[in-house]
Amino acid sequence: GDIYEPEVDVVSLRRRVGMVFQKPNPFPKSIFENVAYGLRVRGIRKGVRQRVRDALQAVGLPPDQFARRPSYALSGGEAQRVALASRFVLQPRVLILDEPTASVDHKSAQRLREAVLAARGAYGTTLVICSHDLSWLAGVADEIREVADGRLFPFSRGNLLRGTWQLGPDGFWALPLKDGQAIYAPSAADAGQAAILDPADVVLGLSRPQDISARNVLLGTLQQLALEEDPERLTASVRVADHLLRALVTPRSAAELGLVPGRPVYLIFKCTALRWH
Which end of the chain is more exposed for a tag (fewer CB within 10 A), N or C? Predict the structure, then answer.
């Protein structure tokens, strides 16, 4: 028989989703009016004052200090938090954040993290965040996935290796790097394909290893150590020529190796660890 499919009210669904853009553009009005705007256009009149106060409090902006302040008097971090409050006041089921820390300093980024977590706890909102700030994201997200060329990676924080691959006489494909080094892969591909490498398959060392089977041994410079979702793992970002490659290490290993930004390190991985994207 026929399957009944209830009609979907697209407008109602859209109103349950909020979005905060990378650069908020508040109205030239008071903070209270900015946060209350969404309620007013929805025809909500009852309890507006209290809902605005609760939303400001949730993002760490005391209402008595900020409600009547003009929007032009806000710092970049405060403007981001006002934008958050203007969405949270509507109690959305889903909130999309586009690069929330791109235009703020470190202290403001920390306050944004606290505000997002507090507001999520208060309203039960699901957060969908697009960000290149992996350290900040790791402290907020329950799950992190990476997108490249419009496709999800099969694992989080993968290395994407683009360039022109060359098939050598030994049957291995090589990706030449600008510093004279090369990355090797064994399986067939076309010259323009991209390869992906799981950071968990990469080992770091301080000296070139001897008598190992791994074909790829690359010298690079450590750029950053970032927290993973798992507190027992760190992501080490290493610059190798024109590529930024990532490896996973434990805090203990990082301490034993003395890993600090600027230190030369070797990345070691088997060519069979590469997959074609």
Answer: N
Residue 88 burial (CB count, 10 A): 28
**Nearest Cα residue to 125 out of 259, 19, 54:** 19
Identify the DSSP state of 231: T
Largest Cα separation within the chain, whole Å, is: 76
Distance CA 240, CA 255 (A): 22
Helices (H) and strands (E) in the chain, counts: 8, 16
Alpha-carbon span 197 to 132, nearest angstrom: 19
Nearest in space to 242 (alpha carbons), one of 150, 160, 134 = 160
Residue 32 CB neighbours (<10 A): 18
Lowest-confidence region among 31-40, 81-90, 153-162, 218-227: 153-162
Sign of CA dihedral 21, 25, 27, 33: positive
Structure tokens at 207: 């000296």
Alpha-carbon distance 196 to 83, whole Å? 37
Burial of 62-80, coded b for 16+ CB within 10 Å and e otherwise, reads ebeebbeeebeebeebbbb
pLDDT higher than threshold 90 for residue 37: yes
Q: 130: closest CA among 144, 112, 116?
A: 144
- Dist. CA 264–CA 59, nearest whole Å: 41
Residue 94 makes CB contacts below 8 A (sequence gap 6+) with: 16, 17, 18, 125, 126, 127, 128
